[in-house]
Amino acid sequence: MSSADTAPKLPLPLREGVGGRGPVREETPFRRFVSEFAASHIAVAGLIIFVLIGVAAIFASLIAPQNPYDLAQLDIMDGRLPPGSASSTGYTYLLGTDDQGRDMLSGILYGLRISLGVGVGSALIACVVGTSLGLFAAYIGGRTDAAIMRLVDLQLSFPSILVALMILAVLGKGVMNVVLALVIVEWAYYTRTVRASALVERRREYIEAAECLALPRRRIIFRHLLPNCLPPLIVIATQQVARAIALEATLSFLGLGVPITEPSLGLLIANGYQYMLSGKYWISFYPGIALLVTIVSINLVGDQLRDVLNPRLKR
Amino acid sequence: MTTWLIRRLIQALFVVLAMSVIVFIGVHVIGNPVDILISPEADQAERARIIASLGLDQPLWKQYVLFVDDALRGDLGRSFVFNEPALRLIAQRMPATLELAVTAVLMSMLFGIPLGLYAGLYPDGVVARTIMAGSILGFSLPTFWVGLMLIMVFAVQLGWLPSTGRGATAELFGIQWSFLTLDGLRHLLLPALNLSLFNISLVLRLVRAGVRETLPMDFVKFARAKGLAPARVIFVHVLKNIMIPVVTVVGLELGSTIAFAVVTESVFAWPGMGKLIIDSINVLDRPVIVAYLMMIVLLFVTINLVVDLLYTLLDPRVRLEAKG
């Protein structure tokens, strides 16, 4: 991307007039962004895998061969069968079963749903909260800025796992508590990132122009400042989704995260832990692989987004 | 420098105070302090006695003063499970955690610096690309899962190393350490490796970026033009300039390594304070939880303070900024 993208957006007709090109294949910032992103095949593969995982998680109840939480469908006699075993009803457990006789494949699909839901949900909430605070800090400045940034510094001086641990130790386990903990852990990253780019943007002429028009402050912040701070925000948001999923899995593995009635991938892995020492690896192994593929695919997308959207790396 | 130090100390004190308020509010307002601080097995009379002795019938601000007063005298309650002062319990487990964390940090330097140097000097080679791809995995794999896989491969399948526990320990300065015995070292290897993977990736990326940034600089060209041996240019001139961010980051990471030891200790049943807190949370041994939270806040504020101090000592620019 050249400076055209970070500069205030000119109305499209003006741009065409200068370039004199036809309107058919005219290069918009978005098209350029897409083609630059697609330059990395690994990143595209990551995106495709992530979309597939997302679809599988959303439609888990339709795809999964078994509803792992419907006790009527479980047969305790099928417990801890290795991958590829046939069930007593003739169905093949592709990834084996856990100690309750649940099909691991179905368990993983349902677990993905909770892992992704918690991860993406908390990242979105944290994004809204953190971005608003960052924009206000940068735009208003002064005491507000100092107070918010002090809070950010304080938050970031403690490792995420400890903050989450503290919150869950006090609140107890539960899906909403995990989301709350993840939001509290993550908001500061958004605030710091957005503030940094908003501080640069707010000195530009288009903000001055908007101020001269006496637009309300809220409109200037969200309609003028925010869109121009988006690129780094998108990068951070992608990374934070991956981090949130990993952290949720860790917390659930430690027994502090989601309750046993709503098992995420982390809890599935924890359930298999005790059987691993006796060689029954599949109960922990396959949910782990699912977790891994999810996190790595998001990170691949995030890495490429960072390269494409970072103005410092422009060739 | 002195004013800076005093200002920084006051800040640190303020953070500890703020966190004590948060922990206090968490325990006394959000949760029910009677449930949290009194064992569920206590009978009615004992209950009333403890409520009075803990001052739970007092107004909230007075309770907070009492809490801080007790904490300052090193009294953060007794564990229900072990029936020992919570603070002593944590202090007993601390050496195991520190041993694990320090070993992990040392390992991250030991592996990270050479790998990063190599990747920085030959950035286009296959080996360097493999190293960088591996570092992405090191960043994104959840620690606990890598730990499980290490156990599965090295303890269960190959049977080379023990999977859990601390092994034999030997005494030094009145504390039991694992790294002094061969059996202890064998037990230490897997957890330390598990804990250091993230830091190895971090250090190697830092070193690589530093090398690539430093190599085209004038002083490196000058050192080469002077006819110094290539090894001397790299290990003295280049490495010295890279070490400032590396030392800072590793120092900062010591804190989060101790924090992430919670995960590694749970996976490898390493009897440190991380495992203690997880066990305590699972059996609701709340005095230990409160004591641990306060200890960890104190620990982190200290670590941040020391890193800031080291940074000013290492980098003259920061010192000047603080003065001006």
Please, could you describe this protein's structure?
The complex is a heterodimer of chains A (about 325) and B (about 325). Chain A is an all-alpha fold. Chain A contains 14 helices and 2 strands. Chain A has helices at about 5, 10-20, 30-40, 40-60, 60-65, 105-140, 140-155, 160-170, 175-200, 205-210, 215-230, 230-255, 265-275, 280-310, and strands spanning about 85, 90-95. Chain A has a two-stranded antiparallel ribbon. In chain A, helix 4 (about 40-60) crosses helix 14, helix 6 packs across helix 12 and helix 9 (about 175-200) packs antiparallel against helix 12. The longest helix of chain A is centred in the middle third of the chain and has 37 residues, at about 105-140. The termini of chain A are close together. Chain B has about 325 residues and is mainly α. Chain B contains 13 helices and 2 strands, in the order αααααααββαααααα. In chain B, strand 1 and strand 2 form a beta hairpin. The interface of A and B includes residues 169, 171, 256 and 291 of A.
In a nutshell, what does this entry contain?
The complex is a heterodimer of chains A (315) and B (324). With 315 residues, chain A is mainly α.
Essential attributes:
heterodimer, A: 315 residues, mainly alpha, MetI-like fold, two-stranded antiparallel ribbon, 2 strands, B: 324 residues
What's the structural blueprint in terms of helices and strands?
The complex is a heterodimer of chains A (315) and B (324).
Chain A: H1 3-6, H2 12-19, H3 29-38, H4 41-58, H5 60-63, E1 85-86, E2 92-93, H6 104-140, H7 142-156, H8 160-171, H9 175-201, H10 205-212, H11 217-228, H12 230-253, H13 265-276, H14 282-309
Antiparallel strand pairs in A: 1-2
Helix pairs in contact in A: 4-6, 4-14, 6-7, 6-9, 6-12, 6-14, 7-9, 8-9, 9-12, 10-11, 12-13, 12-14, 13-14
Chain B: H1 2-30, H2 33-37, H3 44-54, H4 60-72, H5 86-121, H6 126-140, H7 143-157, E1 170-172, E2 175-177, H8 182-214, H9 218-225, H10 230-268, H11 273-282, H12 286-314, H13 316-323
